[in-house]
Design goal:
It contains ten helices and 15 strands. With about 325 residues, the protein is an alpha/beta fold. Helix 3 packs across helix 9. The radius of gyration is 20 Å and the shape is globular.
Length: about 325
């Protein structure tokens, strides 16, 4: 038997049901992975509430995990029992202590990176690669605005951007989170509850505006973020924690670019997937830290959702599988 968290329908509340199900057997082209860590990402919340519906219910959410291969279908080559592996992206189903998954979705973990370095950071690292190397190309001296700079993606972006020579402005919800983000290289913290981030960003850029902005907040924040970007700058919206994005007046896009890139869609292409993973592993080796983590017991998946939605988490969020 395996333990798995399931939702029976679209759920606004964090109703995740911990169940025991028969241990799945790998079919043609599949591998069974025994998880050691399961990453928790905001896309899991979107799947739970039905913003991005899962194909059928009951469903097991989760798009990221680290583990060990414990069974391989006869036609699979390239993986063997005992291999350390990770994966991110569809198909969903990682909120389980073991699962089957197509072999092509697995990434072998290098010996010089620990499970803990990759656990909970993989999807966020791949997202950072998409934003900084495919959506735009950051030149030294450019200024970038990162919302939720002390969050899991935010801390990765801050560190990666500093490696690219950028000046990084970040919005945070508290002085404590500002301190965490600055310890990871953030140049300027804006306490968005106390000051208007558009005005603050203008003041920090001599009224020019930032060159690039990453908005994982959505709602009314997106329109304001576009106002913080200078001429021919770009805003990448990668989430809508604050709610659905309202209609935008196209005049606000004059001399500005807006893109809503989906990392899940990006990773559906195996070439993109492996290029992004290799780049992420390289910056981890180069010293990028995933030191701020929120660890939960596997049984506490619902609590992880509640805390993440309430903004109480910092850094990567993950479940430890016993």
């Amino acid at each position: 038997m395996i333990r798995t968290h399931q939702i029976d329908a679209r759920e606004e509340s964090a109703n995740l049901h911990l169940r025991e199900l028969p241990r799945p057997q790998p079919q043609a082209g599949e591998v069974r992975v025994r998880h050691t860590w399961v990453g928790v990402n905001f896309v899991d919340v979107y799947h739970r509430i039905g913003l991005y519906p899962l194909p059928a219910y009951p469903a097991t959410p989760g798009v990221e995990a680290v583990g060990v291969v414990d069974k391989v279908a006869e036609d699979v080559t390239g993986f063997a029992v005992g291999d350390r592996v990770a994966y991110a992206g569809l198909p969903a189903g990682s909120y389980a202590d073991a699962r089957t998954i197509p072999a092509g979705r697995l990434i072998r973990l290098p010996d010089d990176l620990s499970d803990e370095q990759v656990a909970g950071s993989l999807l966020r690292g791949l997202t950072a690669y998409l934003l900084l190397h495919r959506v735009t190309s950051i030149a030294p001296g450019q200024t970038v605005l990162v919302h939720a700079a002390a969050g899991g993606l935010g801390l990765i972006l801050v560190q990666w951007l500093k490696r690219l020579g950028a000046t990084v402005i970040g919005t945070v919800g508290s002085p404590e989170k500002a301190q965490i983000a600055k310890a990871h290289g953030l140049d300027h913290a804006i306490l968005y509850r106390d000051e208007d981030f558009v005005s603050a960003a203008a003041g920090l850029t001599e009224r020019r505006g930032v060159d690039f902005a990453v908005d994982g907040i959505g709602g009314e924040t997106l329109a304001k973020t576009l106002q913080a970007v200078g001429a021919f700058g770009t805003v990448a919206n990668v989430g809508q924690v604050a709610g659905a994005i309202p209609p935008l007046d196209l005049q606000i896009l004059n001399n500005r670019f807006l893109i809503r890139p989906s990392v899940i869609a990006f990773l559906a292409d195996n070439a993109n997937y492996h290029a992004a993973a290799n780049a992420w592993f390289a910056v981890l080796r180069d010293g990028l830290k995933v030191s701020e983590v929120q660890d939960y017991a596997f049984e506490e998946a619902a609590l992880a959702h509640v805390d993440m939605e309430a903004g109480r988490t910092t850094g990567a969020v993950r479940l430890k599988v016993d």
